[in-house]
Amino acid sequence: MSDPSPQANTRVRINAVEVLSDSWYVLRKVVFDYLGRDGEWVSQEREAYDRGNGATVLMVDWDRRTVVLTRQFRIPAYLNGHPDGMLLEAPAGLLDQDDAETAIRREAEEETGYRIGAIRQIFELFMSPGSVTERVAFFVAEYSPDDRVDDGGGLAEEGEDIEVVELGLDEAVAWVADGRIADGKTVLLLQWAQLEAHRRASN
């Protein structure tokens, strides 16, 4: 978040911004006045977690109708009732000062071992706007078996232990329906890919 006190919305008056934590990323408490539709100003307090912006990519082989996902342990999901905390996801990561395409090409290769080819950004979304500032750029990229340059698995020095999983697109969509894929960004990408596959088949 480049400016913790934006002033573009005339219905919002930022009164105070307090940093509550910056040990991992930055958690701020914001005190502000908000002008409601009834014409009354109301004072509110909210906390916003700023971890930077991110990117994610669905790697698709349209000819074989396959996708490459990752499986890794996610402590927040585990703490909130996921049976083992192991989530199937599209490769993703923070931008770390790079543009979104550069960042996701790096993350995809680190996590999966594939050096992706043609890539397309399809949208940019706020994933949890009630509490997290992050915007995520969503990409779809083509890959083939020949594009694999190493085993992937993530960076051991960052504590990553990532399994690479290749699935048929139809199988992956079915896993969304039965709950085996429960990551929001991945569900969005798979549903987009399903529609795109139908479009390609009808042309």
Structure, described:
It is a single chain. The protein has 203 residues and is of the alpha+beta class. It has 2 domains: 12-50, no CATH class; 54-202, Alpha-Beta Complex (Nucleoside Triphosphate Pyrophosphohydrolase), CATH 3.90.79.10. It has 4 helices and 10 strands. It has helices spanning 75-79, 100-112, 169-178, 184-202, and strands at 12-21, 26-35, 41-50, 54-61, 66-73, 86-89, 92-94, 119-126, 135-142, 163-168. Strands 4, 5, 6, 7, 8, 9 and 10 form a 7-stranded mixed beta sheet that branches. Helix 3 (169-178) packs across helix 4 (184-202). It is globular, with a radius of gyration of 20 Å. 23% of the residues are buried.
**Contiguous runs where pLDDT drops below 50 for at least 5 residues:** none
Class of the largest domain, according to the CATH hierarchy?
Answer: Alpha Beta
SSE series = EEEEEHEEHEEEHH
Q: Mind summarizing the main beta sheet?
A: 7 strands, mixed
- Name the CATH superfamily assignment of the largest domain: Nucleoside Triphosphate Pyrophosphohydrolase
- Considering DSSP H and I runs of 4 or more, what fraction of the residues is helical? 10-25%
Q: On the 0-100 scale, what is the average pLDDT?
A: 94
